[in-house]
Amino acid sequence: MSIRDLLSPFSAWKNILRDPVTIPDPLNDRPGSDRYRGFHQNDNEKCIGCGTCEAICQNGAIDMLPVDSVATKEGDSGLRPRIDYGRCCWCALCVDVCMTGSLTMSNEYKWVESDPDAFRFTPGVDKKFWDNSELGYKRPEEHRLVSPERIEMREMNVESRIDSFAEIVHGYSIEEAQLEADRCVACGLCIATCPTHMSIPDYINAVREGDYEQGLRLLYETNPFSNVCGRVCTRKCESACASRHEGEPIAIRWLKRHIIDQIPHEKYREIIGDPEPSTGKKVAIIGAGPAGLTAAFDLVRKGHEVIVYEAKAAAGGMTRYGIPEYRLPYDALDRDIETIVSMGVQIVYNTRIGADIPMQQLTQDFDAVLLAIGLQEGRQTRIPNSDHEKVYRAVDLLDKITAGEEFHLPHCAVIIGGGNVAMDIARSIARLQKQQYGQVDVVLTAMEEQQHFMADPDEIKEALEEGIIIQDQCGPQGCEIDQSGKLIGLKTWKVLSIFDSEKRFAPVYDNGDETIHACDTVIEAIGQFSDISLLGDELTEKLEWNRGRIQIDSDGRTSESWLWSAGDCVNGPDVVHAVADGHRVAASIHCYITAD
Amino acid sequence: MTYQPDRSQYPNKKADGSLDIDLKSGKFLKLWQGPQHPGITGNMSVELTVCGDEVVEGITHVGYLHRGFEKLMERRTFIQCFPIVCRICVPEPDFNEYCYAAAVEELAGIEAPEYANWIRTLILEMGRINSYLMYCGGQAGSFGMGVISQWTTYVRDLMLDRFEELTGARIYHMFILPGGVRDRLPEGFAQRMEETLCEIESTMSDVYNTMYCNAVFKKRSVGVGVIDIDLMDAYGVTGPNARAGGVAKDVRKDQPYLVYPELDFEPILGQDSDIYTRADIRRQDLLQSVDLVRQILAKMPEDGSLMAKIPSVMHWKIPRGETYIRGECSRGEYGYYLVTDGSGYPRRVNVRGPSYTHAMALLERMIVNLNIADVAGLMVSLHTYPPEIER
C-alpha cells in the first residue's frame, strides 16, 4: 500500500471530458457486418423444396410447407421452408447445406412486430424488407457440407474397349458405393420422377448401411428389371436429383446396380419371397419384354397363372435385341428373366401370336390378355434411293448382332439419327470393324445440334472416344448411287431449324450447304414402330386408335374389356417406362379378373 | 485454509470432528447468496451459514442453468452438435467449438488445414481477451467499483465488433466447425483489430490505475481467498487460479495445440495466490493475449484452405473410438471427452469445464471463515461461469 494507491483511482476523473461511447440503438441505424447471419432470404426460383435445410436444422425450426405461388413439378416438390424464429439459432447450417444455394441470410437483425406469429414465416414468399439485401451470410465457395462430386466409376479404357463387347462399366466397390450413397440427402425428388417410383432414398440407405438384402427387396418391390435398369436405365431420377444443382447428381443407376451385384443370384428368390396361393385365373401376355414380364411378375405374385408368348428365341425384347452387350451383358439380363420365370411365369418361345396361335384362341383360353409387343420395326427415312439393299434399319442390324447372324459388315458406314439406338449401332459397328478390319470408319449424322441429341451424353462422349465421327445438323436428302448401282454415299443438307413455331416437325434446310458422306452402307436409326398385324382385321377394326397407336385408358386397358396394352408400343422406347407400365396394367388386370 | 477457532467461538466441533451447527441455538443464520446475486457470474447460489458476519459453512447449489447439452448431443448428428456446443459457455464460447471440432476431427481422421488453425487460434485469443474483460468488470463490481465494468464492457463491445465481421455473429460465433473454419479474414481486418487492441490497452491502463492501484481494492483482496498450494492438485485447480500460486500450468505450453508452438509467450506466474494476485495474473494474461493476437496476425499465412474434405454431413458416421481434447481457456483447462460408436451420433460427450471444480468443491472449501462481504469477491476471483458447470 502506498500513497499512489490512494491517489491513483482519482485518475478516473479524466473521463469526465470524454464523449459517451454508447450507440443509441435502435434510434440510429447500425448495419450488421457484411457476413452477418441475419434474417433469412430464399430465392424461390432456385429453391427446389428438397427439404435438406429442414433435415439439418437441429432446432426443428424449419418446416417444409406448400405455398400458393409455387407449383409442384418435376424436380421441385413445390414445398418451401417456413422458418420459426422462436426456434432458430442462426447457425446457418441450412444455408451451408442448401443444395441449390437459394437460401441465404441478410445482414438485417432488427424486426419489430406486435403479432408473435409473424416470426414464423416463409422467406421469399412472405415479402420482407430485407428480401433484396446484398449483404449478409452467403456460403463461401469452398465451404461444402455435402460433396458435389460423384465417385468416379471405373471403366474400361478406350483402347481395350474399342474392339470388345465386354461390359465397359466395372461397377462400384463397396467403399465407393457407400461414399456415393453418403452424398444422397434423401430428399426423395427422384421418387416422383422415376416412372416406376422406385424407393430410391431407401435403397441408397441400404447401400449406406450395407444391408443389401433389404436393398434387393426394395428394388423388387418396384422393379423386377433392376439388373437391366442398373445398367441402361435412362435415369430420369438423376435429372431431378437435388445434388445436380451445385454439383453432379447422385449415381443412382450405379448404386442400383451395386446392390444387384452384391447378392448372389441364387438368393434372389429367398429374399423376394414366394407368390400368393393360386387364384385359378389365367392371363396371356404377348411379348416377353420388360413391360410384359413386369406385368407377368406382378400377376404371378398375386397367384394368377401367366403364360407369356414370345416370337423370338429368347426373352428380353429390345433390352436383348436392341441394346449391345457392352452396355448390358446378356447374363445380367438373364438373371432378371430367370428370377421372373422362377416365380412361376411360363414363357413360350418362338411363338408368334397371329401366325402360330390365333388371337381368338387367347380370348377363349385366358381371363385377360396383355399386348406388350414393343417397337420392333425400324422407321425409314424414305429419302431417294433409301430402298437400296445397303440401306439398313438399325434395329434389324442390332437384332442380327445379338442373334449372331451373318451380315455384311460395312467398311464405311453412315448412320442417320442422334438417339441412343443410333449410338448403339454406330458403336457396335465400330467394334466389329476394329475386330475385322483393324480400323473404325463410322460417321453419325443427325439433324439436331450435338448438345440437343436424344442420346445420353455419356454415349456421345464414349462414341467420340471410340473414333466415331459425329456430324450434327445434317438433314438426309438421298442416298448416292453410282452407275453400277453401288451405294457410294449419303447426301445431306445443313439443317437450319427442325420445328416450326408450333413445334411441329418442319425442317428447314440450307440446300447450298450440301455434304456427301462417302460410305458403302447407310443405317437408319430414326425411330421404331410396332407390327400390329397379329391383331387380325376384325380386332383391328373393333379397337379404338389414337394416331396409329391403340387407344388405352389410364390403366392401360384398350376399348376391348379383356385386352390391355403396355410398354414401348404405347409409350415409345424406354425400359423403365415399360416396367412402370407393366405394374400399372398388372394392377388393373388383377382388379378385373378378381372382381368376377 | 484451515479452521481458525480464534475468529469465532462457534461452531464447536462434535466428537466425530464435524461442526456442531444448531440453527435453533440462535447463534447461526442461514443466508442465501444467489442465484441472482450480482457477485455471481451466472445463475448459481451458495447457501451460507454465518455466525456474526463470518461464514462458517457454504454449500453450493447449481442446476439453475441446466440445459442437458451433453445428452442433447447424443441425439444429434455430428454436424448438428456444432451449433449447440458454443452455448455451453456463454462468455467464452469458442473453446467449445474448438474442442468439439478437434475431437471429431481426431476420431474421424481429419486434419484441419493450417490456415484454419491460425484463424482458430486467433479466435480463441480474441475470446480470452473478452473473457478477461468481463472478469475485470465483475471483480471490481464485487468490491463495489461499478465504473470498471462500464469501461471493460465498452472495449469488449469493440472486440465483439471484430468477432461480428469475422464470424458473422457477436456472441455465439458458430465459426469453428469440424474440418476447419467457415470463412477467411475480411479485408482490412488486421488494421481494425489493431485499433481495437490499442483501445483495449489504453482502457486496461486506466483499469490498472483505478482498480489495481487502489487502496480499497488492495485492502480487500490482498491476503484474502488464498488457495493453498497443497490444494492445487487435489482440487484440480488450473489456469490463472493455479498460476497465481506459482504453479506453471498452461495447456498452451504443456501440451501445445493449434499454432501455439509458433507463438512467443511464457506463462505468467504469481506467488501469493490471493484474490489480488489472481486479478493481476489475469490482467497480465489479457495483455499477453493482446500481444498474441498481434503475433498471429503478423505470422499467419496470407491465404489458404479453410476446410479439410469432410464426409457428407447428412450421413456422417465416425468409427468407434474415444478421445479427450483439451485447451487452455481463460479459466483453466477446458476439455471435451468424446466417445463414438461407429454410428452417426456421439455416444457420449463429456465437457470438462474448469468452473466445475473451481466453483463447487474449491469454493466450499475456501468460503469458510470469510466475511460475508468478501464472498462475492472470492467467487468472482475464482473466475467461474455457471453455464459450463451445467452441461
Pick out its properties.
heterodimer; A: 596 residues; alpha/beta; Alpha-Beta Plaits; Fumarate Reductase Iron-sulfur Protein, Chain B, domain 2; FAD/NAD(P)-binding domain; 4 domains; five-stranded parallel beta sheet; 22 helices; globular; B: 391 residues; alpha+beta; Cytochrome-c3 Hydrogenase, chain B; three-stranded antiparallel beta sheet; 45% helix; 14% strand
Task: Give a written overview of the molecule.
The complex is a heterodimer of chains A (596) and B (391). Chain A is α/β, with parallel strands linked by helices and 596 residues long. Chain A contains 22 helices and 22 strands. Chain A folds into four domains: 26-145, Alpha-Beta Plaits (2-Layer Sandwich); 158-270, Orthogonal Bundle (Fumarate Reductase Iron-sulfur Protein, Chain B, domain 2), CATH 1.10.1060.10; 275-376 and 538-595, FAD/NAD(P)-binding domain (3-Layer(bba) Sandwich), CATH 3.50.50.60; 380-527, FAD/NAD(P)-binding domain (3-Layer(bba) Sandwich), CATH 3.50.50. In chain A, helix 18 (420-437) links the parallel strand 12 and strand 13 (442-445). Chain B has 391 residues and is of the alpha+beta class. Chain B has a domain at 78-316: Cytochrome-c3 Hydrogenase, chain B. Chain B has 14 helices and ten strands. In chain B, strands 3-4-5 form a three-stranded antiparallel beta sheet. A three-stranded antiparallel beta sheet of chain B has the order 8-9-10. In chain B, strands 1-2 form a two-stranded antiparallel ribbon. In chain B, a hairpin with a 5-residue loop joins strand 1 and strand 2. In chain B, helix 2 (78-85) runs antiparallel to helix 3 (94-108). The model of chain B has no long low-confidence stretch (mean pLDDT 90). The interface between A and B is large, with 42 and 43 residues.
